[in-house]
Amino acid sequence: MIARPWTDDLPKCKNTCVASYLSQVGGNVNSTDDYLCFYCQTEDGSCLYGVFEPHNGLDAAKFIMQRMAVEMLLPPPSISNSDEEIRDRLRNAFVSVEKAYIENYDGMIAERTSLQYRLQTLNETQISQNGDNILSRLKEIDQHLSGGATVVIALVHNNKLFVANVGETRALLCRTDDNAVLRVVQLTVDHSLNNEDELLRLSQLGLDVNKLRNAQYLGNQSGTRCLGNYLVKGLYKAFPNIGTAAAEPVVASPEIHGPIVLDESCRFLVLVSGGVYKRIQEVRGCSEQTNKQLAQIIVENFRKQTNFTKVSQSVLEEIEEEFVSYCTKNNLTPKSNTHVTLLIRNFNFLPPIPQNDTINLRNPVHKPNERTSVRFNPIVQSKSNTLLNEIDSEIYSSDTNDLETNDSNIDTNRSNESSDISSCRPYDRDKRIKGYVDFSCYYENVAKARKNGTLPGFIK
């Protein structure tokens, strides 16, 4: 029997639903021993969430997950901690986990060095007798040393949100703006070979970024940052396409975001592994709208599911079904054994569950407030909070019947092309939208010209 990780016994945040498993495409999904996330609450009300996407096996990812929980929770953050102290705590946690990973494999790294030296000193007779065994053991060691994970961590502390990530796991914050439009903000940065900042960093190490961009691979992985995978870090010189780098090209340094004040506009938070949103990209073909499409699927499942704890599972099943159908239709062979994780933290899109509530927790019934609705118009922002892409296109046409909307509650001050999403914000038909441009100077000049009798005739 496989021992349960100690993170399974942490006090759970009851406003969170998760699904995490090794997906067998076209077969059954099984989440018993494949859980690679945590969502816990401390005694002072802070909440810690983590999603871990494995590389080359689950063992290293499980070690990284459990060690990350140790670094962040023993001791837990204090209410007295400043924002900068929390940011340092997150940054130091990644450094400590990476160090612990290397220390965990110290013996194996030493054995690898010894075996390679031994292989180089054998004569032909000894190679024929022992060479295969040595090579087999070296292959086995390399398999272990290449294990790692991409990570996203979210911490809610003093009613503020902090996020840290390495790799392509994402954190998305879904919030409404002043006009009750639901928007999606990507809080994390994708550390991939499509990231110009990462390509610049690699070019400064002396690597040919054009070749890397075309190959979409760094050594034995596609991402530019991760925890673990010693093979592509300490032993990177063994890989032809990165061996000339002046320093390790794949790093474990996280991007830190926050603090983000959690006000009433913050509806829900999503932590998602790359294996999930990349399937949406594969099927629907537009990477710029992937976050928007994922959020739309989540909201639809909020409406369909009466059991909040099953929403993440139903979302993944919907994405999986669409992906399998797409592969079958196009005679494609999908990558097998992809690990997928989706964590959703509700803030106020659904009525929140009190953390001390013990009533009917096994089957909590939650539905959005269906008396009101908002428009859905996601925005993806970069790490510096500059606007990268505002998507105004519709997700579904206006005659889509899949959403249970109340037409009388649609915001008529904006175009009617996008679908509605439930919100707790009441609709006020007489409310004026805040102006995007200040025209006061124009009106003042018109008034002066009219008073002086110099107003052109075409201006009324």
From TrEMBL:
Matching Gene3D superfamilies, A to Z?
A: PPM-type phosphatase domain
Q: Where are the residues of the annotated region Disordered? A: 398-425
- Domain spans labelled PPM-type phosphatase: 15-345
What does the record give under GO molecular function? protein serine/threonine phosphatase activity
| Record-linked CDD domains | PP2Cc
Composition-biased stretches (Polar residues): 406-422
Descriptive protein name? PPM-type phosphatase domain-containing protein
Q: Which organism is it from?
A: Parnassius mnemosyne
